[in-house]
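Recall the central idea of this unit: under ordinary conditions, the amino acid sequence of a chain determines the structure it adopts. In this exercise we apply that idea directly, starting from the sequence alone.
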Amino acid sequence: MKKITLIIIMIFVGLQFASAQQERRLVRKGNKEFLEALKDSSKVDSVKYAQAETYYRKALEKAPDNFKWKSNLASAILKQGHPKEAIEMFEELSETATTEADKAKLYYNLGNSYLQSNEFEKSIEAYKKSLRSNPSDLATKYNLTYAMKKKKEKEEQKKNKDQNKDNKDKKNKDNKDNKDNKDKKNKDQKNKDKNKKDQDKKDQDKNKNQDKNKQKNKDKKDKGSQKKSKSGLSKARASAMLKAMEDKEKKTQNKVRKAQVKQEKAKAQSIEKKW
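Accordingly, the structure predicted from this sequence is:
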């Protein structure tokens, strides 16, 4: 029985050893791909970084809690241009790091991840934390300076963008005000023209009425004058006719008197002859 138990223990240890050996081989393969990808800094060798990621994931299947394999995996993911995923992993790892060396490395990579995602303020904070654990690291200092420069540029760009936006808004407002003023001016002019037109029409109507009344009064006056003139002529004519009749009557009476005088003279001469 003891012999059997010993055999089982030996088999278990052997399996554990074999698994550890396989895990290390996978990590070594991952590290090899990673280092080869780093050789040519002029380009990003996504293929080799992806192969390194694959090996690190396989190693973590055998040792899910291994701190170093997780850190290597996060670095391989960051190198492939996936900073958001890398940030989550480095943030989690930085909370469990125990040595200053590990903290410095994790915060350095965390700063690089934020820098790659253009989150400069968070990048600067991560680099500062890294330098607290390793104040002499030149790469971290350089990246910190670069991140501060990029932050300043971003702020300047935002300031210029805001200024341009303000200028554009002001220009749009001025254009709108000018348009409103122009519309108001046109509207006022239209109202003015309309009022003038209405006033002209009123004046014309008033003049027409005045002319009409004037003509009416003139007609009335002329009619009255004509009536008066007609009545006056009739009276004059009647006076003339009456005078003519009187003159004619006087002439007739004179003729009668002359005839009577002539007859009396003739009668008197006849009587004298008889005597």
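Residues 138-274 form the longest helix (137 residues).
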